[in-house]
Amino acid sequence: MKSKIDGVDEEQSSKQQPNLCKVIGLVSSLLSLSYSVKVFHVKWQLIRSKLEELNSSLTSAENCDFSDNSTIWELLPAISVTVNDCHDLANRCVNLSYSGKLLMQSDLDVIMSKFEVHLKSLAEIYNAGVLSQGHMIVVSKPGIGACRDDMKFYIMDLITRMKIGDPVMKSQALIALNEVVQDDDRYVKIVVESEDLIGLLVNFLQMAETGTQEESLKVVIVIAEFSAYRNVLVGAGIVAPLIQVLESGTELGKERAAIGLQKLTENSNNAWSISAQGGVTALIRICSSSDSREELIGAACGILKNLVGVEEIKKFMVEAGAISTFIKLMNSKAEASKINAIEFLQIMASGSESILQTVIRGGGIYSLDQVLDPKASFSSKTREIAFRAIDTFCFSSRSSLITLLGYGFLDQLLFFLSSCEVSIQELAVKATFRLCNTSEDIIKAMGDKDFMPELMQLLDARSFEVQDMAAEALASMLCVPRNRRKFVHEDVNVGRILQLLEPGEGRSSNKRFLLSIIMSLASCHSGRRKITNSIYLKNVEKLAEADVLDAKRIIKKLSTNRFRSILSMIWNS
């Protein structure tokens, strides 16, 4: 891998570098020894954590030249003394050669405090941005197909620049990081495996510099795309700063933070992390603000939908005013916001009668009905979602259904039955079918609105599902005598139903519904007459000969009534 050195005083660097390498070696040796200690477990665990942090900080400086800043070289002897003292304590703990437990605990506390001071001093040096582009080895980006070691070395170089570089270098390193993680998933794995880098991203999100914040969010979003890595981000403490940006960042920062949180909450076990940091309240506030952009509201809704599955969080949403917020959002002029609001309320109301009634009382049904107004210029997607929501909100109770019908729903439904949009037409047929299983009064109203001619047209629809629902809905409508008389009055209707029963044509499930229609028609005098006079009666007879039970019943019914008619004629003569 190629590299270049700009503005480095090689002679001075070569004198100082061994000192740094020596201290790093001492820290590494002490780390290894610490794992052999079997006493004062908690104390040594804390010390080991400090040693790992110190090792990482010193390693970051290996490829750097601090010739213009002597502070770090002045710090190295003190670090070396502390490490040697700790090494001595470790040996005594391993050999159990200490004079007393209390004294050893005190010594370990003192050594831990010294490490904390060293780490603080290093952090101050690094945060001062002592390195600029001219003082650092710049590692070239590995080419396509590079080996993992080269890729890892490049990432480690970026980490160094982000840790101890000046603001410009930090920004350039973040941009370079974004480029590689978006181009190659292997880099994402290396990033996740580096605790230092995830920790840096968490810190950058809390910085006041918005450019660094926004660039860091891009990396977080890429990592959060991978389900397996989301818990790593959450474990590193990413949630709190993301919510902080969500509340007080730039518009772009807020949107990116929301997208990141949406990805994280796709793993349901992360839901509590968002709730515990006040995320639910922040998200509802975003959705209720008239200043929030449509993209931000969409991502916020997505997060809330991911959280609804946790019953306790769902209850908190209700208490926090989510229902009224989203009912208002249903009336938004922005279609995307309207869609998000409808979907969210539909999820919230599922399985909860109290929430359902709250939505209805809040004017939810009226808002849905407005979406289905043929004169309104809503997209097919919005209307599809409105139809599905009506299925959830209105068919569970008669009062809700009556409210819906009072807004002119039957006229709207009739319009969409003849829609050129297949998806809309299917939903309209489904709603019609559902209505036919409600009450006789509603079925009569549908007959008066001329639903039957539209359903007849749909018996020839391309979709088998539409054909079946149309036939079944028609069969239900013809159970009402008034509708039956109206249907028979049109000469073509009976013949068309019989024609569709032609053997070899259509499907068995569809024929079952058609035979049900014929059975209903055969229950009235005018219907029987038209059936017996039709040239297509032979289709029913052929099905009866093939042992189709419903067809045999129809033939039997027709024959009985014909025999009775003959007897009646003889008797009257």
From TrEMBL:
Residues 23-130 form the DUF7032 domain. This is U-box domain-containing protein. SMART domains: ARM. ARM repeats lie at residues 278-322. The lineage of its organism: Eukaryota, Viridiplantae, Streptophyta, Embryophyta, Tracheophyta. It comes from Thalictrum thalictroides (Rue-anemone). It comes from the Eukaryota. It holds the Pfam family DUF7032. InterPro entries: ARM-like, ARM-type_fold, Armadillo, DUF7032.
